[in-house]
Amino acid sequence: MTAEHTIHTMARAARAALPVLAAAPTETKASAIRHASARIRARSAELLAANAQDISEGEEKGLTAALIDRLALDESRLEGLAKGLETVAALPDPVGEEIRHWTVENGLAFTRVRVPLGVIGIIYESRPGVTADAAALCLMSGNACLLRGGSEAAHSNKVLLDCMREGLLHAGLPEAAVQMVPAGDRTLVGAMLAAHGLIDIIVPRGGKGLVARVQRDARVPVLAHLDGINHLYIDAHADPEKAVAIAVNAKLRRPAVCGATETILLDEALAPETARAVLAALADAGCELRADEKARSLEPRAKAATPEDFDTEWLDKTASVATVSGITGAIAHVQAHSSGHTDAIVTEDESAAKAFLAAIDSAIVMHNASTQFADGGEFGFGAEIGIATGRLHARGPVALEGLTTYKTVVRGNGQVRP
């Protein structure tokens, strides 16, 4: 069986499930997700054993520390995953929501209504939690999904897929609503990208190479972000304690996630003791600093930055540091180097915060908060299917609303157009 035949067969089965999903009552979909959440808890020992096998094999293959971190599950992460599904199940159902209603002069009544996108292909690496998150979000928004996880998480993904399918069976929904494309065969990814008319949208979640390939080769619309080159600007009017705490958390809580800060911007007017405290706290915590000359004068452990450092997504315990001239200099630096994912300002000056938040056109902009909050769960969405940084359709954490489009229903009373 060719890769094209495999994907087409799976996609047609998924499309056949769409009418059932679109018509499914909210409680039916929610019941399926809640049951899947319960199964994740009930099978936690099995999941952890499968994940341990994935990690062991990944270490033998030489996976980086960042990829191992994304791959790893523990009791806490599993409980977070289960709670995330419960949150998704409790969210308002977007399908059928009336976005807008209006009537024109001739009496025609228009209603704009949310509808599912259709069949969604999700291509991802390492993170087994995506299997459950993506399946739950697609299901609640009335979409079918084809999941293609990486071979490095194959054992974990299999158990999670079983949990999701147990939920579907429990609620009487078609199993074809959630399918797993076999890992290990790269031609299957190519077949997914070429399945125009069968797959409605592709969402890649993974490294730069994967996302770049998807964006380059896809004949299907893509919802994605390529890099997470995120900035944290510490303004001259920043609270010193907030500046230190936010900088350390934003960079080092989990350096490998796409919401991690990669560049620290220090206002040249910032009190030297505050700037020194921020840099020392990062260096003390094991962060390698690549800094400009002024920042190096405050922290002797910092190395000299190259121009390329400010366009690098480190995904590790490394941060670029630049000194900028006020809010204008900070905005200029971010606009020149940001990937449009998440950028933040630390300041007690409301006018500076307002200027930064208005000028920076990233998918997520923050004031006095860690960029590590760039996550669907932290936004109250329960989970996310990915972070989108484009300007079409959805931006930021993509959850239920981002997995819908709309149609316009027109009601008349015999009107004909002159």
Entry keywords:
alpha/beta, 418 residues, four-stranded parallel β-sheet, Aldehyde Dehydrogenase, Chain A, domain 1, Aldehyde Dehydrogenase, Chain A, domain 2, globular, 14 helices, seven-stranded parallel β-sheet
Rg of Cα set? 23 Å
Beta-strand segment tally: 16
Number of helices: 14
Overall geometry comes to globular
State the name of the first-level CATH class of the largest domain: Alpha Beta
* N- and C-termini, Cα separation: 55 Å
> Low-confidence spans: pLDDT under 50, at least 5 residues?
none
What name goes with the CATH superfamily of the largest domain? Aldehyde Dehydrogenase, Chain A, domain 1
Most strands sheet: 7 strands, parallel
CATH architecture of the largest domain: 3-Layer(aba) Sandwich
Question: How much helix is in the residues?
Answer: 40-55%
Strand order of the largest sheet: 10-9-11-8-7-12-13
Secondary-structure element series: HHHHHEEEHEHEHEHEHEHEHEEHEHEEEE
Number of spatially distinct domains: 2
Proportion of β residues?
15-25%
